[in-house]
């Protein structure tokens, strides 16, 4: 079970980082909205690891193993992806982060009229501006939490479904 989760988790984390490198090499913002497409890799890996584990057991892996392998896969994928993004942000320097923040401020300024129409919309707008990641640590935390949350939301029901 641990080997299955380790293999799937580490490969998925590396795939998430390769997506960030691909965005960077193609001239896209590696911290921008396109990076969030890799948030779907850990849930897919969690389900695949659960399917792979199910094939290893004749009677099914049971609930604890099925859910456990999905959660461990998600945790490892999120940790590897977050660590790699943190190291990338450290190596790329503050210039790329400043460029991202300028782009994010432009996008939020364009959406400000939409925020203003909503109840408490201006407070949400200010909170969104305040919560933008400004440091490599912030990007790493954001990456870890998003991947862990989405992977957990999908991994637990997947483990329940794939237990037998």
Detailed description of the structure:
The structure is a single chain. The protein has 164 residues and is mostly helical. The radius of gyration is 18 Å and the shape is elongated. The two termini are 15 Å apart.
Quick recap:
This protein is about 80% helix and about 0% strand.
- Roughly what fraction of the amino acids lie in strands? under 5%
Oligomer: single chain
Low-confidence stretches: none
| Principal-axis shape | elongated
CA-atom Rg in angstroms? 18 Å
Structural class: mainly alpha
How far from one another are the termini? 15 Å
Total DSSP helices: 6
The proportion of residues forming helix, as a percent range, comes to over 70%
User: Would you count the extended β strands for me?
Assistant: 0
- Major pleated sheet: none
The chain-level mean pLDDT equals 88
Order of helices and strands: HHHHHH
Give the SSE map.
Elements: H1 2-25, H2 41-56, H3 63-92, H4 94-117, H5 121-130, H6 136-161
């Amino acid at each position: 079970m641990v080997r299955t989760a380790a293999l799937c988790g580490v490969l998925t984390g590396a795939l998430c980082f390769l997506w960030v490198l691909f965005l960077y090499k193609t001239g896209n913002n590696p911290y921008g909205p396109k990076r969030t497409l890799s948030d779907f890799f850990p849930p897919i890996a969690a389900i695949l690891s659960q399917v792979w584990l199910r094939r290893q057991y004749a009677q099914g892996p049971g609930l604890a193993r099925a859910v456990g392998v999905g959660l461990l896969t998600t945790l490892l994928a999120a940790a590897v992806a977050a660590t790699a993004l943190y190291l990338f942000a450290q190596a790329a320097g503050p210039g790329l982060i400043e460029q991202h923040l300028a782009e994010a401020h432009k996008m939020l300024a364009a959406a400000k009229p939409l925020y203003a129409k909503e109840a408490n919309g201006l407070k949400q707008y200010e909170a969104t501006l305040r919560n933008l990641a400004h440091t490599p640590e912030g990007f790493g935390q954001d990456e870890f939490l998003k991947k862990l949350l989405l992977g957990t939301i999908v991994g637990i029901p997947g483990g329940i479904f794939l237990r037998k």
